[in-house]
Design a protein that fits this description.
The protein is mainly α. The chain contains 11 helices and 4 strands; from the N terminus they run ββααααβααβααααα.
């Protein structure tokens, strides 16, 4: 007699659960949500948020539900920065998509704006500089450490100026720029660290640092942003895997497409009023 043992739902999630080494990096997560699924949740939250922002600004619950989007995108963006095979191409894709969409949004709203992709472009520079410092340190190259430290200082200075002193309104400010940096900050395992230094990189440590970043974001942006802390729940279910499908470009298309759709609906409603 044959018996079929059904795999429980929590083990059937994309690419399974548990830690494994991925693309040379150390995966420490044991949850059952892939990066793609976190991004899909973020897209749904962002759409709800922008429906509130563009069409129903008086309905505050829409903005509350939308607070999940940025933290989830920040977390998955940080993971993407680490695992990307072409850092320059990755940065340029984010930056130029941000420039194009920011120009359109600035024209629509009548003021200079730098949207979330501009925010993440600055995050990208800081993450790459941090990665470079770690690699140089473990390679014991003083010259490369100094070069990457200079790169980090320049990227941080640019971020502070754009977010705090320039006439451009950058989404989520300097707290938003720094949030993705917290995700891999303590990762020394992927650079072949041993002992206490390697032991720093644990899920609990990542969640605490990321949570502190969310608190900073809430303090910077006001009471509604406190609901962004709820994003820690799906983040804690992350399993360290991208997901079966390559959906990278879908998410970059979704951002301007849904803004164009909602903007068009708003124009139609204004014309009909």
């Amino acid at each position: 007699m044959n018996f079929t043992v059904r795999t429980p739902w929590w083990a059937r999630c994309e690419h399974g659960c548990g830690a494994a080494q991925v693309n040379g990096g150390q995966n420490i997560y044991f949850g059952c949500l892939s990066g793609n699924r976190l991004k899909i949740i973020a897209c749904a939250s962002m759409f709800i948020d922008h429906v509130g922002l563009i069409l129903f600004p008086e309905v505050i619950i829409l903005r509350v539900l939308g607070r999940l989007a940025m933290p989830l995108f920040a977390f998955t963006f940080a993971e993407g920065c680490f695992y990307t095979h072409n850092k320059a191409a990755h940065f340029l894709l984010v930056f130029f998509t941000g420039i194009i969409t920011s120009v359109a949004m600035s024209f629509a709203w009548g003021e200079a704006q730098g949207n979330i992709l501009i925010t993440f472009s600055l995050s990208c520079l800081l993450i790459y500089a941090t990665d470079g410092i770690k690699r140089a340190a473990f390679a014991r190259s003083a010259a490369k450490i100094a070069l990457n430290a200079l790169f980090f200082a320049a990227a941080l200075a640019l971020s502070v100026w754009l977010c705090c002193f320039s006439p451009i309104s950058v989404d989520y400010g300097i707290a938003g720029v720094c949030l993705p940096v917290t995700v891999r900050l303590l990762d020394f395992r992927s650079y072949e660290a041993k002992g206490a230094l390697a032991a720093l990189y644990t899920p609990a440590a990542v969640f605490v640092l990321f949570g502190l970043g969310l608190v900073w974001l809430a303090v910077s942006l006001g009471p509604v942003q406190v609901f962004g802390l709820l994003a820690l729940v799906p983040v804690m279910l992350y399993g360290g895997q991208r997901g079966r499908c390559r959906m990278k470009y879908f998410f970059y298309v979704f951002y301007p497409a849904h803004l164009a759709l909602l903007g068009g609906i708003r124009l139609l409603l204004q014309a009909a009023a």
